[in-house]
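Entry 14. Two folds queued back to back today. First construct below, sequence then structure tokens.
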Amino acid sequence: MQSVIPVNLPQHSYNIAIAPGSLDQLGTWMQGTEAYPLKLGKKVLLVSNPTVFQHYGERAIASLEQAGFAVATCLLSDGERHKTLETLSQIYDAALTNRLERSSTFVALGGGIIGDMTGFAAATWLRGVNVVQVPTSLLAMVDAAIGGKTGVNHPNGKNLIGAFHQPRLVLIDPQVLQTLPVREFRAAIAEVIKYGVIWDADLFTQLEAAPQLDQLSNLSAELLQAMLTHSCQAKAHVVSKDEKEAGLRAILNYGHTIGHAVESLTGYQVVNHGEAVAIGMVAAAQIAVALQLWQGTDAQRQLKLLHNAHLPTRLPSGIDLDAILTSLQVDKKVEAGQVRFVLPTQIGAAIVTNQVSTTVIQQVLEHMQAV
């Protein structure tokens, strides 16, 4: 099963390729075709982390070198707490040492953190060089690698420093998920459920038909392919309509408003990104029900899917509710001092609103405190 999904943009169109076994053809994919040559230059900086590189680094390098690319590597420490400007400088140092040029290409081999940092480095090195995303986590495959959002964290907030920089290619090899830790797989299911809630009712229904969503071995090959294809199509469609989040694209932040606050306030060490998004989705669902925008029965359907993926649906113990409310005010999505929430209106549709009172947010958070 192989599919190619176009992301059609006025100036930066590219393809998302979902192809089992494609990691060993990375070099060929990066060459493009006679009708659609990618012209990515000969020098490549492969950015990864030690864990992913141990599994897949040599295969990626062999494929690139066989296709005629000259490959240098840069390995970054793993974990959200390392997604900083200080760590980013390691990519710049490697680019300088290996004399990467404007025609050169950065290749991100890893999860969302590697993809975000490599993309931001590519956006800013020599005022912009090519980047190819080769996601190795489900979360990166269905979300982070697509759409050109890049960046690093500030001590006071997630992804506050960044740029839009579209990749030239996103290459997804589902086979690499075999080595993905179970917790990371579960975290990504939150983003897949997100697409079902805000955009794709058919995807939501397919997820409901699966008895368990908590690990790869519980999914059929057909369901995994459907999850990847539907999620990538949803994001490609939204990004094509709104590349830089001027309107429609904001719906992709469903669950992220409170989720980002939870991540930041727990030092990126208690919950991972997908787990935080799951918590944020429960909060957004309860807010939507409180505002009579969404049926309580649909909120329960979402909750059941999150439980089937063994994802958290309560706030971490000990987190300060006032600190969450304060953190919301420095979120990227604040506009004119008003926090914007993405709220579902039915399965497959959502709106963006800044008409959520602090009282409602506080009531929902109190209800979600760990017991």
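Second construct, same run, same settings:
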Amino acid sequence: MVKAPAYRCSECGWTTLKWVGRCGECQQWGTVGEAGVQARRVAPAAVPDARAARPITELRTAEAPRWPSGIAEFDRVLGGGLVPGAVVLCSGEPGVGKSTLLLAVAAKAAHSGRRVLYVSGEESLAQVRLRAERTGALEPQLYLASETDLATILGQIRDTDPELVIIDSVQTVANAENEALAGGPSQVRDVAAALTRAAKDADVPLLLVGHVTKDGSVAGPRVLEHLVDVVAHFDGDRQTALRFVRASKNRFGPTDEVGCFEMTGDGIVEVPDPSGLFLSRSATPLAGTCVTIALEGRRALPVEVQALVVPASTAQPRRVVNGVDASRVAMVLAVLERHALLSLGSHDVYVSTVGGIKLTEPGADLAIALSIASAHRNVALPRALAAVGEISLAGEIRAASATKRREGEARRLGYSRFVDDGVALVRIAVAETIAAGRKQAEPSHLVAVPEF
């Protein structure tokens, strides 16, 4: 018998001999609890011939079988469809549309003839029925249950014998043998482990809905994300109808795919080609607008960046941004003032994107700079122009990732002029683009426009 550490962190498994309020590994507060005092030595067991280790070169590979969920954008994120026995954790902020999307997945699977079990721990059966009526998800092969007891849910899975199981949500389910409150780290760990084991044994795909914390991470212990096969995150602004689904972990496919959806009064609708969602509908070119080609996973999307530059009414000029990184906008403003000779220190600057999308990649720097310069000079940029590039503090334009893919998407959408790292300096890019905008404008538009 050997003495084992008496306290263990429920988040990361870190152990210590004495109790501490904060985990020394993951730095979480209140997660260190008592964990057994004695640990037994484990004797090596005999290994059957069928389970003996073999050279990796002698093993045969077989692609995991998949079946489509009926929603192409969701299948794109999963890597082609649902894998039998796979456990998918779907997380997102409250009200983003997790339950609506998974109910649509359940209805599609039931419509194809598969038996589906949808277990709701947050809503009653009548509430789920009303939402199903509104979204057109009424199917005879879709079975509903409102349970929060783990043993009862496992019994429902055994008696129903479904081909797809959906649990909404894992934080509401509790194991009666565990005295902790539902949603606590130990409860979430026990529930997730039991449901995962049941899904693997029955070879049935399992979709789990997970809550998120204030910082956007999945609530509960980190072991929850290790237990599941796929972690899909629902992202979207409540003020807009657009929703993105991204996979941060996927054992059966890539993690750089993005599914695009739109919330409507009749439920959630997939958007296979969102190229027009982030562009304005103006028939004439407007000063202060520039289009960039942003990457969402492997998908290239045209996004319009709008800027407004007006004389400051206070001693401290305002810098207001929406949909872009405020620190990068501040950097672009400094570069424009230093290297492009734009006097912006006495002006209020407002920068925003169209459609509520968020641009976080540095490839949007050039479009932000051109939109600000266009607004400052009151000159509309050419309509057929798309700008992609990262701006350095030295005023240089660096190539963004996947330039060929962005350029191909720009050509497909009719943008014949693609400004990128082919222009070495931001000063030259701004000067040439403003000059091209002046050439396309009528003489009346050139009155009272200062020289560059």
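Quick look at the second one. The chain has three domains: 1-41, 72-272, 276-446. Confidence is low (pLDDT under 50) at residues 443-452.
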